[in-house]
């Protein structure tokens, strides 16, 4: 009995402590022909993958939204196997509150490149030689206030290798996921 209590209680405690009740607020995204996926640990459907363009001008896009403690943002990640340069026709990103119909202008637009983070401009970003489409490029659309519960990101057209590609609106709806999740995530 002494061995059971010496080893049993710590094992039971470790098992119970490794999973905990959890509630997570997230934004469920949607876009035409998009595939919604979940991040690691919490099965909240908060990421969407979709494709723009065709052939050598094809662009893979991943989008997510987050109301964090210090930043409220929509992030767009770009990839694909073919593009050599990418930029946006202009920097006219807007967030439209779908309930109040108010248009929110971003407080900042940042471009994350393989070697720098800087304000987004209309200048083309060139993929490093020998790595077309495989280098890191993402855009972070920040707002000063928390994102609305139900909104749409409207983006200017993307320009891939000189070819303008229409960018569809991406909708986000605030939801709550509740369940049991691993403690260490």
Structural class: mainly beta
The total tally of domains equals: 1
- Give the biggest beta sheet: 7 strands, antiparallel
Gross morphology is: globular
Helix content percent band: under 10%
Spans of at least 5 consecutive residues whose pLDDT stays below 50 are none
Binned strand content? over 45%
How much is the radius of gyration in Å?
A: 21 Å
Order of helix and strand elements from N to C terminus: HEEEEEEEEEEEEEEEE
Question: What's the tally of helices?
Answer: 1
Provide the spatial order of strands within the biggest beta sheet. 2-3-4-5-12-9-10
Task: Determine the mean pLDDT.
Answer: 80
Total number of β-strand segments? 16
Terminal-residue CA separation: 35 Å
Descriptive report:
Helix content is 9%, strand content 49%. With 185 residues, it is mostly beta strands. It has one helix at residues 2-18, and strands at residues 19-30, 35-37, 47-52, 59-67, 72-79, 85-88, 94-97, 103-104, 108-113, 117-119, 125-126, 137-143, 150-154, 158-160, 163-165, 170-182. It starts with a helix and ends with a strand. The protein has one domain. The mean pLDDT is 80. It contains 1 helix and 16 strands. The longest helix is centred in the N-terminal third of the chain and has 17 residues, at 2-18. It is globular. Strands 2-3-4-5-12-9-10 form a 7-stranded antiparallel beta sheet, with no helix packed on it. A 5-stranded antiparallel beta sheet has the order 1-16-13-7-8. β9 (108-113) and β10 (117-119) form a beta hairpin.
């Amino acid at each position: 009995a002494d061995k059971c209590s010496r080893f049993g209680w710590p094992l039971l405690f470790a098992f119970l402590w490794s999973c905990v009740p959890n509630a997570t607020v997230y934004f469920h995204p949607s876009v035409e022909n998009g595939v919604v996926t979940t991040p690691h640990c919490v099965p909240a459907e908060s990421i969407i993958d979709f494709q723009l363009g065709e052939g050598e001008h094809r662009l893979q896009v991943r989008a997510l939204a987050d109301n964090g403690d210090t930043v409220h943002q929509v992030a767009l990640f770009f990839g694909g196997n073919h593009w050599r340069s990418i930029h946006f026709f202009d920097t006219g990103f807007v967030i439209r509150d779908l309930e109040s119909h108010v248009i929110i202008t971003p407080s900042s637009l940042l471009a994350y490149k393989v070697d720098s983070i800087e304000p987004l401009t209309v200048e083309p970003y060139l993929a490093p030689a020998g790595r077309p489409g495989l280098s890191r490029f993402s855009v972070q659309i920040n707002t000063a206030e928390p994102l609305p519960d139900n909104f749409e990101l409207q983006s200017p057209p993307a320009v891939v290798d000189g070819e303008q590609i229409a960018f569809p609106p991406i909708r986000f709806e605030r939801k709550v996921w509740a369940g049991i999740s691993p403690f260490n995530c």
